[in-house]
Amino acid sequence: MKPAIYFDELEGDVLQCHLCPNRCIIRPGETGICKARKNVKGMLYSLNYGELTSIGTDPIEKKPLYHFYPGTMIFSVGSWGCNLSCDFCQNWEISKGRPRIVQRVIPHQLIEIARSEGTPGLAFTYNEPTVSFEFVLDTSRAAAKEGIYSVLITNGYIEQEPLKLLVQSISAMNIDLKGWNDEFYAKELGASKKHVLDTIEFVLSAGVHVEITTLIIPGKNDSLDEMREEAKWLASLSRDIPLHITRYFPNYKYTIPPTDVKTLNELHNVAKEHLNYVYIGNVPSEDLNTTYCPDCGTSLIKRRGFDVEIANLTEESRCSNCGKEIPVIL
Ligand code: SF4
């Protein structure tokens, strides 16, 4: 166990964690909603510090990050725990609590493994990484000193104060914006969308590379009007934010059938009215996974599955046909 940061002491050894907007009040012997932070005799501890449940070297497109070193591999790790309560969780075996088997590492061991894998970066993914705040912070700081970049695949549900500290050693994030419906956020996730929007705004202003993912669940968050509002809001920050609209498959407690591909195409078309780069995930479509120049329509990066072909893009990330600057980090 590692002493946690970001909590207040209330009366009689009762603590309030303020790492995320849940702001759990935690009595001695209890854990917060994420199950990863525990009050032990009036002190808050991170229970999942250095505990890994998933390790892999993945194409960076799998995160998904399409505009950040496309075509490269990234060493990826996951721990356990999550601060949202989605009944459609695609990784529920590790998000809903501590699995029986975990591997323990210290930050430098993880960096050594990443180095031996020969990848330039490290991704904290699979479960919600911000509930391993202390480990992610220690590891990403140490990795940055070694010239290894770190990325987060996150639900963005974190308070601003810890976020300000974390972004100093994070180069890119894919943030799950789970639709535009406030009621869906409140009822199905136990969360408030506003905090996720605050995170997106803040990390963009901090200069972190940001891409957004919205998993579309039939009947829950598949309204064209809501997608229009989401895309408009993202465009108000920047039309260049890549948006990944991904197909849902039944998992955990959800038995709703998979999202109709026609619906995804319609949502894509609506989002494209406002955003320059919109992609469809979990569907084998080369066209809807290709990066096109928003000015002249030239195909710049083709993706077939995780096979990536960069063409018509200069080393300075400009369209080689019309010269437009393309927001892709090469
Ligand atoms: S990080 Fe965990 S313990 Fe802390 S407020 Fe969020 S859910 Fe509660």
TrEMBL record:
**Cofactor(s) in the UniProt record:** [4Fe-4S] cluster
Q: In the record, what terms sit under GO molecular function?
A: 4 iron, 4 sulfur cluster binding; catalytic activity; metal ion binding
Q: Please name one Pfam family that this protein belongs to.
A: Radical_SAM
Q: Which UniProt keywords apply?
A: 4Fe-4S, Iron, Iron-sulfur, Metal-binding, S-adenosyl-L-methionine
Q: Which CDD domains would you find in this protein's record?
A: Radical_SAM
The record describes how the cofactor is bound as:
Binds 1 [4Fe-4S] cluster. The cluster is coordinated with 3 cysteines and an exchangeable S-adenosyl-L-methionine.
Where, by residue number, does [4Fe-4S] cluster bind? C82, C86, C89
User: Domain Radical SAM core, which positions?
Assistant: 67-282
Q: Does the keyword S-adenosyl-L-methionine apply?
A: yes
Q: Which PROSITE patterns does the annotation name? A: RADICAL_SAM
Fetch the NCBIfam families from UniProt.
Answer: AmmeMemoSam_rS
The name of this protein is Radical SAM domain protein
Species classification: Bacteria, Thermotogati, Thermotogota, Thermotogae, Kosmotogales
